[in-house]
Design a protein that fits this description.
It is an enzyme of class 4 (lyase). This protein is an alpha+beta fold. It has eight helices and 14 strands. It folds into two domains: about 5-185, Ribosomal Protein S5, domain 2 (2-Layer Sandwich), CATH 3.30.230; about 195-340, GHMP kinase, C-terminal domain (Alpha-Beta Plaits), CATH 3.30.70.890. The protein binds (3R)-3-hydroxy-3-methyl-5-(phosphonooxy)pentanoic acid (PMV).
Length: about 350
């Protein structure tokens, strides 16, 4: 009986924001809308085994990460369970074993919260479906995104692909602060199969956790302007995605990346999350773009690594440039070739 015990496995990708989420209200409500490319290669695979237990007031679970017991992940998951409990009241009726692994190396500086929390949310939804087989696929995906958001905001953009919007925007009907939705408008062929090569500049632990980072936007002198700007950038991006205007696309996403870092540099306390090699890579990309006329660009998340973005039809020359000139700036020459993907899969 699958309501007594069983196991579900999901593989869920990371995502990279083009318009950044930075700043939130209570209950993981974003201050501005964001949009991301779902990735393909950077994924977390999670198996959630469950067995009925005496109902009690405690959550009961073990975490096994890449084959080893990992008690240090428990507080984060405990917090996640506490936040979602009202929406999935069966959590305290089961004992869980959460076995999880990433396709990208641990402590590569790639945040596993988006892929990890979305994979776990999907496994929990599979139990809900076992208990209530009538639920539809769209309800399943929307609620998985809703639950993932409560684990880590950006995780709500990892359930589906290939372009996902999270946060209410006046021109995007159906957009919501509560869950990610598929980008509903026309997307030019230039953006199909877009590449993202992730250059691992600094594999250390994050200097600033995203929780701390989002909180720095409270009482930040430029916060309100930033939230207005993100909304405007979304309006511009809708047009750019339709027309395929790659030059404006590049200007928009590079500005978004630098603004994210500018917010951290101008908060109190302030942080510089780029490393010298981050700047060397950015300057090399700009010089190469000018000289080659290719549409290679970059974005950043809240760290020193660089995501190098380029369209499919220019991939060969861009990869050659990355290998010849940029990989030298990576820690131990380490980089990951990724591209736009289509969302999580049940295994
Ligand atoms: O999901 P969080 O709380 O880890 O925040 C992620 C924020 C950024 O990655 C910097 C931007 C984004 O929109 O993904």
């Amino acid at each position: 009986d699958s309501t007594e015990k069983g196991a579900f496995t999901w593989s869920s990708p990371s995502n990279i924001a083009l318009i950044k989420y930075w700043g939130k209200k209570e209950d993981q409500i974003p201050e501005n809308p964001s949009i991301s490319f779902t990735l393909d290669a950077c994924k977390t695979t999670t198996t959630l085994s469950y067995s009925k237990k005496e109902s009690s007031n405690l959550f009961s679970f073990e975490v096994i990460f890449e084959g080893k017991k990992h008690d240090d992940f428990k507080p984060k998951i405990e917090t996640f369970f506490r936040r979602i409990e009202v929406y999935v009241p069966f959590l305290k009726e089961y004992h869980f074993i959460i076995e999880t692994s990433n396709t990208f190396p641990h402590s590569s500086g790639i945040a596993s919260s988006a892929s990890g929390m979305s994979a776990l949310a999907l496994c929990i939804m599979s139990i809900e479906k076992a208990l209530n087989p009538e639920i539809t696929e769209s309800y399943f995906n929307q609620k998985a995104s809703f639950l993932a958001r409560l684990g880590s905001g950006s995780a709500c953009r990892s359930i589906e692909g290939d372009l996902i919007v999270w946060g209410n925007h006046k021109h995007i009907e159906g957009s919501s602060d509560l869950f990610g939705v598929k980008y509903p408008f026309k997307v030019h062929n230039h953006f199909k199969n877009y590449h993202d090569t992730i250059l691992l500049v600094d594999k250390g632990e994050k200097q600033v956790s995203s929780t701390v980072g989002h909180n720095l936007m409270h009482n930040h002198d430029f916060a309100q302007q930033r939230f207005i700007q993100a909304n405007k950038n979304m309006t511009t991006l809708i047009e750019v995605l339709k027309t395929g205007d790659l030059n404006t696309f590049i200007e928009l996403i590079e500005s978004e990346a630098l603004t994210l870092h500018a917010m951290m540099m101008t908060s109190r306390p302030y942080f510089i999350l780029m490393k010298p090699n981050t700047l060397k890579i950015i300057n090399a990309i700009w010089a190469f773009r000018k000289q080659s006329g290719l549409h290679i660009s970059f974005t950043l998340d809240a760290g020193a690594n660089v995501h190098v973005l380029y369209p499919e039809n220019e991939a060969e020359q861009c990869i050659e440039f990355i290998q010849n000139e940029l990989v030298a700036y990576c820690q131990n020459g380490h980089y990951i070739c990724d591209r736009i993907g289509f969302g999580a899969k049940q295994l």
